[in-house]
């Protein structure tokens, strides 16, 4: 890794105890000691991208950003099983030869049987790998709560959070709001709040329909997921007669935008999904367990989507647009 202070290339022996032996300064992350393979320069780069244009971002947005490379790596189930089987069979054959000392004919049969078993095992592994890969869950290798703990190491070294990251910011209370935005993910509301969206647009923020002021039009934000679709449907049902613009992530948006993060959980039931007016491709994608978190959308794209949604909150246009198209 490169020392974030003196830019020297550090081998393992040059960075023991999270300290550079050249400049004698401490760094926060060693890529060999954390599941995300983070180092300080990588965190700085990701932080700079999220904060581009002077925007603020949340720890959740940073967590997803630094996890992106890991969750996009190909899933390799049963990796190493072929070699492991070869080693076990070799040990077994050697043990038989040394302990039992069978006749040559018997030993030859044991060797042939072991080779045949190895061939069969590798065929089975080859068949199972694509099946298991298609069903394997995909998520960041480090839990969010663990990542937040890791950030305390950054603060200990540098005295503050990564540049542009917000900590706890009180939600803005807007007088006489002209619209409301509802999102279950509180970190999304924190990002909008920190970047001045509520005051700039006279926008009330809420995590559910109960927090929406009366009469004002509503913008919905949610994950591209089964749970996100349920949330959107429940919010609409709780606000009858209200103008509601669904600006949440739609599965088709994720399918056609490689820049959006894709995760995979347990497989779902397609029957329920068909009630949400989705295409066959979207239903199959969600039923396979795929989803995309709204909390991973970078601040610039998030603010752009909200601004576009707020221009569509008049009743006539809202009836026409349904789901909103996200910016590339």
TrEMBL record:
Keywords: Membrane, Transmembrane, Transmembrane helix. The chain crosses the membrane at residues 78-100, 106-128. This is Uncharacterized protein.
